[in-house]
Every structure is written in structure tokens, then in C-alpha cells.
Amino acid sequence: MIRISFNDGWETRPKVNPFAELSGTSVEFRPVTLPHDAMIGQDRVDPQGAATMENGAGAYFPGGTFEYRKTFSVPEEHRGKRIFLEFEGVYRDATVHINGDYAGQRPYGYSHFHIDADRYLRFGQDNEIRVEARAHRDSRWYTGAGIYRDTWMLIGETARIAQDGVRVTTPDIDRDRAVVEVEARIENDSLAIRTLDLAVEIRDAAGAVVAADVAKVTVLPGEPAIARPRLYVFDPALWGTGSPSLYTCALSLREEGAEVDTETVAFGIRTLQLDPRFGLRINGRPVKLRGACVHHDNGVLGAATFARAEERRVELLKDAGFNAIRMSHHPMSTAMLDACDRLGVLVMDEAFDMWTSAKNEFDYSLNFPEWWERDIEAMVAKDVNHPSVIMYSIGNEIPEAGSAAGAAWGRRLAEKVRSLDGTRFVTNGVNNMLAVLPEVLKSRRQRQAAEPAAEGINTVMADAGDMMNMVGASGLVSERTAESYAVLDVAGMNYSESRYALDEELFPNRIIVGAETFSTHIDGNWKLVERYGHVIGDFTWTGWDYLGEVGIGRPQYLSPESPRPVHVAPYPALLADCGDLDITGHRRPVSFYREIVFGLRSAPYIAVRRPQHHGKTWGGSPWAWSDAVSSWTWPGFEGEPITVEVYGGADEVELLVNGASLGRRPVGAEQRFRTEFETAYAPGELVAIAYRDGAESGRHVVRSAQDGLRLRAEADRPVLASEGGDLAYVAFTLTDEHGTVHTAADRPVRVEVSGAGVLAGFGTAVPATEERFDATERTTYEGRALAVLRPTGTGKIRLRAAAPGCEPVELLVAVE
């Protein structure tokens, strides 16, 4: 079918009750280009009281109902053709009307869906489509709202290749050749029997045809037919993380020699194997998953899913040492899947965060019993040709997993996935403590009754790692989760590394993945991953910081006034503050620590704790890294005590402060890959030198910023495409004349954008702020800010930026 972008020409507004409009209430529509997040531009709400999980989950953004409309025309010559509208994602409870008539709906906010539109259209005239979306206390994270992913118009003949109707599998592969089986669903909405030819070509990365075939297909009216040609690719280039070779399958549907439809899909040729001795093997080679959990928001863009934003996240995560992504906790966008295919990053795609038990008042559990099968079908249809996808996860921390009824639901979902795609593995991110939570709470109530001074919920959350591991290793969990794990190919375990060694004995055929783990536990977790064949990887919470669940990873310090840590940060907290990379894509110290633990970085890394907190008692959660920054610029703290953290995988590390050695200290695995030095702050230079077997194996230098502040602006690429969701990311830094970032000289930066583009988002990684992402002025955070430019045509995008005390800067980005 012909695919035409349907992203332009939309307008949006908060939904107004039509009766209220009749009485004079009016809210104007404003023009937008999709993808669009209707929530990110709202004013956040200060709860003016205690922060709770409910009001902090969505970063204090209010919910609401949002209305979109668009006027479009369909030429008269398209009368008699089949026309569908495809929505890749609308959050949430989407309803679609065309020319005033109900045309369809989709409750789940993360499934792509199609609207059969031609019956509602007025050919040769203007048509109006209206889409409503709702978001209200229905998630544990920032979801955004509205039509936040791409939309398409699909135009086809009455005989055609169905939408999502092509599936390519490679069931038999060896070094010399690969069998490529193409499954094509052909539909016939005419009144006559149609006999057509389906021509198939397999092309390599250079575009050369390496296999071809023609299959004859007879399709009865209203009864789809499946064509299944088998082709053979000799000397195949295998897809893998080191060499992500892609092929394309081009299909042409012909009738009496005339072409009536075409379709092209990308795919990869690779094998997957799984067993408890060798773990996961791809193309016969063992692979340990260095995984990152990520949410779907794109930081300063909110939930809007632009192709370039998704690609950039995958690029930066891979550069940071990850080879796998778990989309948490919903299906991944097509754009991110495409990027993972191209870049060689493995994917665990996840279906749901809840089944029949609600986690929020108005969440998807209200729709799950009626819609789960259709949403599973949508996820698999989206993923099936992507070689990066190796596992489907049917859920995350589902409370039912510890019950018999929950195990039955798990079996239903797992078997549904297998019926649609038997070429990948099925997992489920089970939180073992949550699975037996009723018993845990009952025991806690009994203990509190006997000991009134027993710990409260904040202490439980602060000790979440120990608590989850202790309960997770219990016999109660072994018994209650046995069936829920048995229905899976891979037992996904959240925060339960205590079971890794235990289950090798109790369940010798069980294969485990750490589906969600604390970043602060990565050194111990990775040792277990490397030691045990049945443990295939670790997915940290989280690879990329995100909006919502505010403050779960923020640094906290205890005091008489605050004797216990608080799980949720108060307004104006904005971010979870727990990613290896912050929301702008800047790597935080934990990212370099993880790279060292993975064995991917030989040089040491220096991070300096903020001197204003020196000597205080740490109280952060197990999601919280220290408050260290890789900076030696701390004006006002000259002569004050300061702690320097050094990470390294060598035998020992030496720290020099302005040329004076503070001695050598052991580092590496036995020291949890880190050590600390106490000194007094004096501007100048820090040098960490790592030694292995007595010889230097790497060094890291951090210098103080000097006088002469400058504002620098650098675009990630000089040329953009005018279509296809391209963006330019402009990084602003405040530096001295030598390029050293001044982390302690933050000031407002004002930007002006003109020409062939607009400012799509502007912000920083500051964890708490009332500044907005749709403003033209933002205050830098630790010397950095990020602007995102979206093209609106061809030509040049001109950006001018100014900050107090700095010379203005300008840059041009070409759009072709």
C-alpha cells in the first residue's frame, strides 16, 4: 500500500464540552505538527502538600482530555480504493471520528492501530478527522498525552498486500546459505475471485538482488490468502551486534502484468539459541546482555517520538557500553526499533505494566481483559521483522505473578505470543517481593503490632534492595512463582540477584535475566552474570533519566529534621534523577563506572562529591548514585575538605592534586572498582593514573575552569533531512577559553531560531525546576543546556544564543 505521512496540518486544544461551548465557553485550536505531546506544554501543578507516588508519578503535570482535528482531501480518483489511517501511538483512550462519524478507538496508549477510513470519506471534498485522547492518573511515570507518534494514510487497491501483512523469517541458516521464508497476507475486497502474481526480491545492503521468486496467489472475495515463497540467500551476511547486516525484501503484487501493490520490509539473518549452560547465543556465539531499561519520553521533547530522537538515544546508549535495551514498560516505537536494527542493539520489547490488578486508579487494567489480545497482536506485528528484537516481555512487576490465577494469565499471554511468533523468546519482568506482597504485608503488620516502633514505609523503600533480595530468595517465592516462571523461556527477575545461584540448584533448567536491577549493584550483578551460564544479562534501572517518578534516584542526606529518606521528591521535582545518561544525553559518573565494570574502559575515571555535603550522612535509595560530578571547579570552597571518587579496573590507582601525589590505592573488582581520596579543594588539576602489574594502564585528567567565560554551541550534525522526523540537537556549554566546562557558573541562555526550522524543545538535566521545555530561555545546569531544532522546510536554520557575560553565538544548520 502507498504510505503517505499524515503528520501535517493538525490543530489541537484541551477538550471542551460541546454544551459548554454552546453557552459561550470557547478554547481556540492551535496548529501543531505531529508527533506532538499535549501534556509537556501544560503548567505543572504544585500539590501544596506532601509529595506522594500518585502526584509525583507524572512529574506534577496535570492530566486532561485533548482534542485534535485536521482537514484533508482525498482525490475523486481514489474512490473505490481502500484507505486506512495508521496511528503509531495515541495516549490514551483514543477515539477517532471522521466527518462526525465514529470510526474507531484504542484504549492502550502504546499500540499502533488502523482506522478503516474509506467508508466515511467524501471524495473530492474536504474531510475532517477528530481524535480525542485522555490521560488521568493512569501511569506510574510521565506518559505525555495526545498523538505523540507518527500517523500515516495508507492507500491500496481492493486486492492488495495487507497492512502489517509481510513477515520474513530465516528458519534454516548455516555458513553457506540461509533459507528465507516470506509470509505475505493478500486481501481481496472486490466481488470477484482474483488470481495474482507475487514477485519477491531479496536485496543486500548494497541493493543487489541476491534471491528472487514469483508465486501465484488466488484470493477469494473477503477471504485473505497467505503466500509463502521460500528463497535462498547464499553466503549470507549475518546480523549481530558487531555487524548489523540488513537485507530488504521487496514485494510486487501483479495482475495480468500490471502492478497493483508493493511493499518493502527490512530484515536480518541471524540465529538465536538458549540453554542454561551457554546462555544466550547469537549466530552461535555467547552474548551477555549489557542492558539498559528506558522509558519512552525524549526528555526536552516530552513524549513526542521523532525518529532522530529515538536514533540518538540508541547511539548514545551504545556508545556508553550498552548492547541491549528493555523498553519499559510498554511496546517500543517503530523508529527506535529501526535504529536498533541499524546500530546492532538488542531489544527486549515489553507489552504491559499491568494486567488485571490496577497500579493506578484509571490505568490499563480497566481495559486489559477486553483488549490484551489485540495489543499483543499489534506489538508482534510491529516487531516481527526486526532482527534486534530477541525477547518479548509479557509484563512488568505484575502482582498476580504469585497466584494461580496470575500464572494462568501468564500462560495465556505467553502462548498468544508464541502463536504469533515462535522465533523469539518470552519473558516477564517479575518482582518476586511484589508477587508475595500480601504475605509480606501481613507479616509486617504482625511485627508492627508486636513492636510499635517497627520501621515504616520510608525505611522499607530506603532498604528496598536488601528487602527485595531477602524476600526474593525465600521458599515462599520459590513456591508461589514456580508456575509463572515455568510458562516463560527466560525468567525475568527484577531486583532478585539473590536467586541467581539459588535457582541453578532448585531449577536447573531455568534461564534468568536481570530484567531490572539497581545501578548501585552493577559490580556484584555483573560478576554473577559472568559466573553463571544460566544468567544471560543485566538491565539497569535506568539507562536514561526520565520525566516522572520524581526523585527516586536523587541524593539524600539524613538529619534530625529528616531522619529517614523520602521516596518521592516534592514539587518542583521533575525527573527520576537516576539514569546513567541524563535527559539531554550527557553521561553521568555512574555511566563511566559501569563501562569499567563491563571491562570496556581501561582508563580510570574521576568524580568529585559536592563539597557542600561533605561529612553528611548519606540516605539515598538504592537507585541513587552519589552526588559526584566530574569537575574540579568549586569556587567558594577553597581549602575546604572534599572527597574524590576514582573508578578503575586496574590493580591500583594514584591521584595527583596539582602535581602532588595522594598515594596509590587498590582498585578493581575486589574493591568494587572504586576508591576514594580525601583532600582539601584547591583549584588546578586532578590526575588519576591507573596501574596494572606495576605499569600505567590509563589516566584521567580533570581541570578547574579558569576566567574568561564563553558560551559555546555545537550542533550534532550540519545537515538535516526535511522529512522523516529529523532533528538537530544543539549542545550549549559554558566554558573557559581552553574549553573546560564551567560547572559552577550557570546563567540563563536565550535562543532565537529563524529560517527553515523551529525550536522543538529547550532544557537541561536539572532534577527540579519550574522552567519549561517550550520556553526560549533556560538556565544552564552544571554548565550545560540542550536545544532541539525541527525542520519546517528546506534551506537554512539559523540559531542565535546569548547569555549574560558571554559573547552571543550563532550557528547554521542546512535542511535538504
UniProtKB/TrEMBL annotation:
Residues 65-135 form the Beta-mannosidase-like galactose-binding domain. The keyword Hydrolase applies. Pfam families: DUF4982, Glyco_hydro2_C5, Glyco_hydro_2, Glyco_hydro_2_C, Glyco_hydro_2_N2. Residues 711-810 form the Glycoside hydrolase family domain. Gene3D superfamilies: Galactose-binding domain-like, Glycosidases, Immunoglobulins. Coiled coil: none annotated. Keywords: Glycosidase, Hydrolase. One of its GO terms (molecular function) is hydrolase activity, hydrolyzing O-glycosyl compounds. Residues 639-696 form the DUF4982 domain. It comes from the Bacteria. Residues 280-430 form the Glycoside hydrolase family 2 catalytic domain. Residues 166-270 form the Glycoside hydrolase family 2 immunoglobulin-like beta-sandwich domain. Transmembrane segments: none annotated. The keyword Zinc-finger does not apply. One of its GO terms (biological process) is carbohydrate metabolic process. Belongs to the glycosyl hydrolase 2 family. This is Beta-galactosidase. It comes from Actinocorallia herbida.
